[in-house]
Amino acid sequence: ACSDELFIPLNIAAIPDTLVESHLFGHRRGAFTGADKEREGAFRAATGGTLLLDEIGELPLHIQPKLLRALENREITPLGSDLPEHVNTRVLAATHRDLETMVRDGSFRQDLYMRLNMFTVRVPTLRERKDDIPLLAEHLLHRHCKAVGKLINGIDNKAMSYLTGYGWTRGNVRELSNAIERAVILCDGEQLQVDDLPYDIVDVERSQHSLDLRTAIKKFEYGHINAVLESVNGNREMAADVLGISVATLYRHLSRFEPNHASV
After folding, report:
1. Could you give the CA distance from residue 158 to residue 11 in angstroms, rounded to a whole number?
2. N- or C-end of the chain: fewer Cβ atoms within 10 A?
3. DSSP, residue by residue, 9-72
4. Please, which pLDDT band fits residue 2 given cuts at 50, 70 and 90?
5. Cα–Cα distance measured from residue 29 to residue 36, given in angstroms and rounded to the nearest whole number
6. Are 39 and 25 in contact (CB under 8 A)?
7. How high is the pLDDT of residue 210?
8. In DSSP terms, which residues pair with 91 in a beta bridge?
9. Among positive and negative, which fits the CA dihedral 216, 220, 223, 225?
10. In degrees to the nearest 10, what's the CA dihedral of 236, 127, 207, 211?
11. Which of the four pLDDT bands, split at 50, 70 and 90, describes residue 97?
């Protein structure tokens, strides 16, 4: 895609189920109660460019065949219209949900999943790409400084070491962004300092430095096993294969860390 092409993001999770179809395909005036003017819809608005369907796993089941038709035939039918319209829109889809599991339990259509799964890009969790944290943190610092009207020149080296050393339990950039935003609000100097960071980041990291060897090894095992489980979407058979242990051994490890974790 060219940098000057139109790019329209649409967060499915942020739209009420009753309005998703209208937001995607548009509607004619008077198509339903409250439709006092025509809506173009994201597919038509992004014609010639790219439409990002964020949180595609939240798409209502009854809209899924209509999206499949739009992808396969490049045709949409706005609400209140009898005539299909051609669209030339590149579509990207993103989700944090396990779509394969949703297909198995019937909440996501298999044919739509196969169509969307033509080319998959897995975005590693933040704790899997800690080398990216300094650049991300600096970028987020500038963004939040601009938003609150502060001038902060950078992040202190010690504070940055806490950010890169933290486990980032949710594993996403939003968690880092929230931490930086809070630090920016509290900061009254020229650089972000350790004291500006959220307590959980600082306290966890400080406690890790004082761990005895046995506890440190146990914490590493727990973190590594959880990271592998997340990378295979919770499939314990695949996780055991990646770890080079039996499934029974994996369950024993999990029950040692969290007794309830080992239940099937």
Report:
1. 37
2. C
3. EEEGGGS-GGGHHHHHH-B-TTSSTT--S-B--HHHHTTTSEEEEETGGGS-GGGHHHHHHHHH
4. very low
5. 5
6. no
7. 47
8. 51
9. negative
10. 50
11. confident
Give the CA distances from residue 18 to residues 22, 39, 61, in Å, rounded to whole numbers and listed in that order: 8, 15, 12
**Containing H/E element for 76?**
strand 75-76
* CA–CA gap between residue 238 and residue 236 (Å, rounded): 5
218, 227 in Cβ contact below 8 A? no
Q: With 0.85 as the threshold, say if the pTM is over it.
A: no
131, 158, 162, 95 alpha-carbon torsion, rounded to 10°: -40
Whole-angstrom distance, CA of residue 188 vs CA of residue 150? 9
The share of the chain scoring above pLDDT 70, in percent, equals 89
In sequence order, what DSSP letters do the residues of 126-142 get, joined into one string? GGG-GGGHHHHHHHHHH
Token pair belonging to 26? 């548009």
